[in-house]
Amino acid sequence: MNTITAAITAVGAYVPEFVLSNQVLETMIDTNDEWITTRTGIKERRILKEKGAGTSFLAIKAAQNLIEKSGIDPKEIDLVLLATATPDMPVASTGVFVATQIGAVNAFAYDLQAACSSFLYGMSTAAAYIQSGRYKKVLLIGADKMSSIIDYTDRATCIIFGDGAGAVLFEPNHEGLGVQDEILRSDGIGREYLKIDAGGSILPASKETVENGLHTVFQDGKTVFKYAVSGMADVSEKIMQRNNLTHDDVNWLIAHQANKRIIDATADRMGLDENKVLVNIHRYGNTTSGTLPLLLSDYEDKLKKGDNLIFASFGGGFTWGSIYLKWAYDKQR
Ligand code: COA
Q1: Across the strands, what pairs with 80?
Q2: Which residue among 116, 173, 259, 308 is the active-site one?
Q3: What does each C-alpha distance from 104 to 10, 77, 139, 233, 236 come to in angstroms?
Q4: In degrees rounded to 5, what are phi and psi of residue 103?
């Protein structure tokens, strides 16, 4: 086959050591393990505690893990894409710093932001660079230090999010493996329902914005939940239909880990058994850009060459979508 497809050829991940359990949250806010577990599926999440360490810390660790596992020479990487909603700082690209730190000295780099769909959109971007024949090695990292933008007195949000990162390498494939199809969507109606009001160009940081707590995430959970359920299920079902895939043909659903009930609703619509649904929300909560590659890393042993994977995500904005990918390797390469 002469056509170039974009395959994932290596995976890496990193989560911080500190575990914030539901039991500890019970001592911080008015909540309980039973409520959190039944409403979200989350039992614990990881928090980056190192002083002065930002999202780049997580991203570098995940990329280094990939480099060690795969044995690739970082000097061969052409592009480092950092999917994140929590860059180290508003100006000075975090991805550039990460690329330099991991020794990707011949790469160019930039950040990509689409809230919880950042990584999924990044897969599309990475694949396009590979399919066009322009680049041979694109490192896509998804990393977020969500704890840096969460108010730990707000029980509506602080139970949900955690810190973490994952990385994948995209390379050309000539056997038809890798990305097969994508459906990416967005709708600005979502802006009011999941946002941080201050610190941007509309409302720059000031004494008042700090005093009014406007630098942390606000979420209208019920509304976001409604849109997320229909959005993720719609695109996942559509991508199956468009590619003539039955539930038997799909080996794995790799869905954004925001709420177990949203993942279940998507799997139901696709007609998938629960043993085909990758889940780690109980361990990490919602790590935003980290969730999809963390799933790949946790389940890498189970993925077989030729397996049909459906990725799905939903995030602030709103942003959402689905990607159909054929897995390209068995773990022992
Ligand atoms: N512990 C205990 N009770 C809580 C609570 C908590 N942490 N948070 C909210 N509650 C209470 C509410 O005050 C409310 O009480 P009331 O009925 O007396 O008013 C009740 O529980 C129900 O709250 P509600 O917000 O309606 O719960 P929910 O079932 O919608 O679950 C979320 C809340 C946030 C878990 C859920 O809406 C959700 O997952 N939303 C989508 C998140 C998402 O997908 N984001 C995607 C972008 S990444």
Answers
A1: 109, 139
A2: 116
A3: 16, 6, 10, 37, 35
A4: 85, 15
Alpha helices by DSSP H, listed for the chain, are 22-28, 33-40, 55-70, 94-101, 118-131, 207-211, 221-242, 260-270, 281-284, 291-298
Instruction: Indicate whether residue 35 lines ligand 1 (CB < 6 A).
Output: yes
Nearest CA to ligand 1 atom 28: 222
Pick the closest to residue 277 from 289, 290, 265, 286 (CA basis): 265
Q: Is residue 283's pLDDT more than 80? A: yes
Q: How far is the CA of 139 from the centre of ligand 1 (A)?
A: 36
pLDDT tens for 15-33 read 999 999 999 999 999 999 9
**Per-residue pLDDT tens over the stretch 165-210:** 999 999 999 999 999 999 999 999 999 999 999 999 999 999 999 9
Distance CA 12, CA 165 (A): 9
- Element holding 252 (H helix, E strand): strand 252-255
**Which domains occur in the chain, in start order?**
5-176 (3.40.47.10), 179-326 (3.40.47.10)
Catalytic residue (choose from 22, 65, 173, 286): 286
End-to-end CA distance of the chain: 22
Instruction: Find out whether 149 and 86 touch, Cβ atoms under 8 Å.
Output: yes
Residue from 225, 256, 286, 320 whose mutation best tests the ligand 1 pocket (most atoms within 8 A of CB): 225
Atom number of ligand 1 nearest to Cα 228: 44
Model confidence pLDDT, tens digit, residues 256-277: 999 999 999 999 999 999 999 9
| Ligand 1 atom at shortest distance from the alpha carbon of 31 | 1
Name the pTM for this structure. 0.97
Task: Estimate the share of the chain in helix, then strand, then coil, as percent rounded to the nearest 5.
Answer: 35, 25, 35
Note whether 169 and 123 are within 8 A (CB): no
The answer to whether 20 touches 35, Cβ cutoff 8 Å, is no
Q: Dihedral angle at the C-alpha atoms of 163, 159, 271, 128, nearest 10 degrees?
A: -30
